């Protein structure tokens, strides 16, 4: 008879995670200080962690940090918020209506593979300001993951639940609110988290080309000025902001879905 595998205690799991990060930093330190050259990859110009920490402290003492972070946050959340509203509405329409699927899904599938960089010249032509064009790029990046995951969640709702609700006299709006939304919520939350990460990726691309403030612009400016340590600082800030945003979304999703039992990691 097979025995159940016990889950690791939380303290041990966090210790393992911390050790994995420290191991990566140690490898980075060794590779950069020894100018490791692997042929197709070289660490000759990569600054060591100590220089990156010094550059990070210098940026944190500078008033530019607030301007860069607030500019990026505003662009991300403005575009992402619009993508959430439009994406969830489109996803519900496509997932629940065959006519809406035939009408809306083909153009969305045609536009979805277009990368964010390809949208930048057109967005500059369409919008009167570079600020709106950058917000639009974050919107486009978040829209498609949200739409597709919402469609997947809505279309895969158990039809027996819907039929049972109808047999009890529930109207369409009540079915959407009480049956479809709770069943599709996990897939929607997944799409929201993926869309947030994609939105940050697209924002950085847009800021590198047409921004004046923002973490993406700061990173690209550091590259043009050959401040290599600042490049890594910008990358780490982007990673922390993106990770924090996605974590907040998934945490909020767990709070809003108390009927789902969390899976125990094995």
Distance between the termini: 18 Å
- Biggest beta-sheet profile: none
Rg, rounded, reads: 23 Å
Shape type: globular
Q: Poorly predicted ranges (pLDDT <50, ≥5 residues)?
A: none
Summing up helix and strand content along with how strands pair, one would put the structural category as mainly alpha
Tally of helical segments: 10
Quaternary arrangement of the chains shown?
single chain
What letter string, H or E per element, gives the SSE order? Answer: HHHHHHHHHH
Number of strands: 0
Percentage of residues in helical conformation: over 70%
Query: Average pLDDT across residues?
Result: 85
- Percentage of residues in DSSP E strands: under 5%
Question: In short, what is this structure?
Answer:
This protein is mainly α and about 270 residues long.
Question: Could you characterize the architecture of this molecule?
Answer:
The chain is mostly helical and about 270 residues long. About 80% of the residues lie in helices and about 0% in strands. The chain contains 10 helices and no strands. Helix 2 (about 50-60) crosses helix 10, helix 3 (about 65-95) packs antiparallel against helix 4 and helix 6 (about 130-155) packs antiparallel against helix 8. The relative contact order is 0.12.
Q: Can you lay out the helices and strands and say which pair or pack?
A:
Blueprint: H1 10-33, H2 49-60, H3 64-96, H4 98-111, H5 116-126, H6 130-155, H7 159-167, H8 172-210, H9 215-224, H10 228-256
Keywords:
mainly alpha; 78% helix; MetI-like_sf; transport; MetI-like
């Amino acid at each position: 008879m097979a025995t159940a595998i016990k889950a690791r205690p939380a303290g041990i799991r966090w210790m393992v995670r911390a050790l994995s990060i420290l191991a990566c930093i140690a490898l980075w330190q060794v590779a950069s200080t020894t100018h490791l050259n692997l042929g197709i990859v070289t660490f000759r110009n990569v600054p060591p962690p100590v220089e990156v920490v010094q550059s990070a402290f210098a940026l944190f003492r500078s008033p530019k940090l607030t301007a860069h972070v607030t500019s990026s946050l505003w662009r991300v959340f403005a575009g992402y918020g619009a993508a959430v509203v439009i994406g969830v509405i489109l996803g519900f329409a496509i997932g629940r209506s065959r006519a809406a699927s035939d009408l809306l899904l083909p153009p969305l599938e045609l536009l979805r593979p277009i990368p964010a960089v390809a949208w930048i010249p057109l967005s500059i032509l369409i919008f009167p300001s570079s600020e709106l064009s950058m917000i639009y790029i974050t919107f486009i990046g978040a829209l498609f993951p949200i739409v597709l995951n919402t469609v997947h969640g809505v279309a895969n709702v158990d039809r027996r639940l819907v039929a049972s609700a109808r047999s009890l006299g529930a109207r369409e709006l009540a079915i959407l609110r009480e049956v479809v939304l709770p069943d599709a919520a996990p897939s929607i939350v997944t799409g929201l988290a993926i869309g947030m990460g994609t939105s940050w990726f697209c924002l950085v691309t847009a800021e590198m080309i047409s921004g004046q403030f923002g973490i993406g612009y700061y990173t690209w400016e550091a590259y043009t000025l050959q401040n290599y340590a600042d490049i890594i600082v910008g990358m780490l800030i982007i990673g922390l902001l993106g990770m924090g945003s996605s974590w907040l979304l998934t945490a909020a999703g767990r709070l809003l879905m108390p009927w789902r039992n969390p899976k125990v990691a094995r």
